[in-house]
Amino acid sequence: MSAGGSQVLVEGPGTHRIEEHTPRAPGPGEALVAVHAVGVCGSDRELYQGNRPAGYVRYPLVPGHEWSGTVRAVGPGVPESLTGREVVGEGFRNCQVCARCHAGETTLCTAGYEETGFTRPGAMATTLTLPARLLHPLPAGTDLTAAALLEPAACVAAAALKARARPGERVAVVGTGTLGMFAAQFLAAVSPAELLVVGAGRERADLARRFGATDFRTADQELPDDFDVVIEAAGSASAARTAASLLRRGGRLVLTGIPAPGADGLDPTALVVRQLEVRTVFGAPPKAWAHAVRMFAAGLLDPLALVTHELPLTAFARAVELVGAGDPGVGKVLLRPQPYAGRG
Question: What is the pTM of this model?
Answer without folding.
Answer: 0.95
